[in-house]
Write a sequence for this structure.
């Protein structure tokens, strides 16, 4: 069995994001990048399948600039068998829309012919949650979103996924694609042995073919500054003025 895991390099959520000059991108100097947390959950699930079954190969795939290889090395250190870098020069990872990203990944993944494709439910930078479904459509395979449990039974994948306030359980024959939600697992940390072994594992590269954009990025702006807070009093005497402000100024009551 072959499992491909799509990984995205994203800005650290603790970093301050600033628009770049011209407002058509974000400033990347001194910006820390990390492996998208939802993709990390997807990778962990692939590794757990590998740990529990013989003959499973895990291939980590990432689209992006040369620096994207850092998340691939992390995946190799965690336990992936090999890595594939789909090279594209978008420095911040938001230069391609969902359809372009899906198309760029679909070509190499079609060559890999995995039985299962896993990725996070969304990337924390653009939060579009589009790539999984578009990628599956491009490959002509079924897609199940936001899975919280994955089982293999009688040659079928049994996928438990969030559907409104309920959990729906579906079965699909390979190949199938699925996106990971929180609660699926708790990702492991790469150990020293894994980090050293990662240096010897294969990491190959292919050029990206994203095609024309479907969405045009017009401008990135910082959110307006918040209004300063006000102290309206203390104790019971502050209740009435507070209710008045909530009703007439904030209009939340």
């Amino acid at each position: 069995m072959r499992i491909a895991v799509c990984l995205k390099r994203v800005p650290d959520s603790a970093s301050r994001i600033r628009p770049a000059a011209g407002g058509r991108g974000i400033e990347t100097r001194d910006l820390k990048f990390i492996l998208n947390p939802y993709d990390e959950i997807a990778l962990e699930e692939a590794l757990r399948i590998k740990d529990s079954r013989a003959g499973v190969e895990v291939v980590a795939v990432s689209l992006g600039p040369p620096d994207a290889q850092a998340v691939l090395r992390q995946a190799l250190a965690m336990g992936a068998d090999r890595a594939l870098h789909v090279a594209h020069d978008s420095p911040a990872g938001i230069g391609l829309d969902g359809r372009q990203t899906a198309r760029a990944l679909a070509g190499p993944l079609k060559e890999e012919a995995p039985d299962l494709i896993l990725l996070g439910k969304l990337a924390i930078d653009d939060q579009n949650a589009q790539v999984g479904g578009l990628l599956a459509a491009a490959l002509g395979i079924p897609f199940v979103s936001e899975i919280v449990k994955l089982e293999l039974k009688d040659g079928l994948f049994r996928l438990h996924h969030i559907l409104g306030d309920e959990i729906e359980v579906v079965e699909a024959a390979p190949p199938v694609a699925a996106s990971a939600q929180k609660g699926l697992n708790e990702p492991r940390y790469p150990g020293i042995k894994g980090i050293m072994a990662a240096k010897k594992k294969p990491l190959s590269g292919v050029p990206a073919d994203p095609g024309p954009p479907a969405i045009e990025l017009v401008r990135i702006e910082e959110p307006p500054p918040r209004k300063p807070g006000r102290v309206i009093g203390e104790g019971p005497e502050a209740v009435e003025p507070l209710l008045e402000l909530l009703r007439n100024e904030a209009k939340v009551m």
